[in-house]
Amino acid sequence: MPTKRKTLKKIQAEDLKSFVGIGDPQISPDGSKIIFSRSHTNDKNKVCRSLWLTDLKSGESKQFTAGENDRQARWAPDGKSIVFIRNDNDGNSQFFSIKLDGGEARALSNLPEGAIGGFQWSLDGKSIAFRFREKAPDQTKAAKKELEEKGLSTPAMVIDQLWYRLDGDGYFNAQRFQLYLLDAKSGSHKILFDKAADGPGAFSWSPDSKKLVVIANLEKESMLNPYKARLYLVDVKTGKSKILPGQKDCILSNVQWSPDGKSIAFSGRIGKVPPWASQNDQLYVYDIAGSKFQSISSNEDYCIGATVIGDTAEATFGSYFIWSPDSKYIYCNFGWHGDRHISRIAAKGGNFEFLTNRTGVYSLGNISSDGKSFAVTYGDCLNPGDLYQATLKSGKIGLKKLTSFNDELLSTKQLSKPVSTYIKSAEGTRIQLWEMKPIDFKP
After folding, report:
1. What gap in Å lies between CA 249 and CA 428, rounded to an integer?
2. Cα 222 to the center of its chain, rounded Å
């Protein structure tokens, strides 16, 4: 008998609760496993996140942590354990550690109430550098409890800062992230760098685990002078910092120390340019021995800070790039004509070599120690995305699909595929636009 054909339905707003999101894939140092974040919406319309682990030999994916808000998993340098951030219902963060062979996750840190930003392992596996913003004293659980016990109302919020809130982050008023150091064995922590009025930006460990390079703007009104950002070297043992010589006024986005220790890659725009101006973010390499830097991406008209946002994933801004283990290449992940691709460029400069070509959004996680495998997510206009293992061969990335979380739901839906086209403005500028027609559209 012929197979009964499925009746496809138009997608509805309520269907958004059924979609599964994945992100932040991280491949193990030996290239055998990938840890990633899986999210869904529960019955109370709350987004829940847990960590899942994929074995690349068997292709099996399974839930690895049982928390409702676990995120940003990072492999220990020896590949035997994973550290991640767990948020409680009030948004407060702690570091947790879990062995690769399973068992219960244990709390690694004992931080006061507050939020953890990004973090990185030192390569010797002894320390974790992280950004942390302590909650204001009048917003802690103890302060709220005292108000309730005394029958007092919530005090008025006094705002005297130019920057006091952020979408997805809420009101933080005058509180700022600072750079901390966590002992990976004892869980003790201390402030390492707190000289920036609005907190430090991106940072990166030196290969010998003795220093950190940090983006910071030491101006009192840094938001009014964004081009005063500089790169600083921070000594982990003493906490002393010094500016890297030879720098100019610029806006900085990201920074990564090369594996061979000889260079520091950073992204941004040189000069007194406004933060949201139309100039491209470029990729620069700073030669530590010579105290000089050069743009290695100025040959082409690409903005390495360009991104692609959508309704099924959290918005991300700023540039993302990683070094190859041999320090010869830098892999970049940026938007181009509505897609987001993975490319690479020689550390000495030259042209970008695009490693992906399918229409859609590639999100690069990290690279294995041998430089052969990448952790990647990929999605397009008809699928919010899945986990892939990417391998580089003959100048192109080959993708192996590892998850199919949304396939069953999507197989029951009628979807309208957006079509890209180009028009010319009155001045003759070529402009891209997208057209998405309703289902069963009749001209």
Report:
1. 34
2. 23
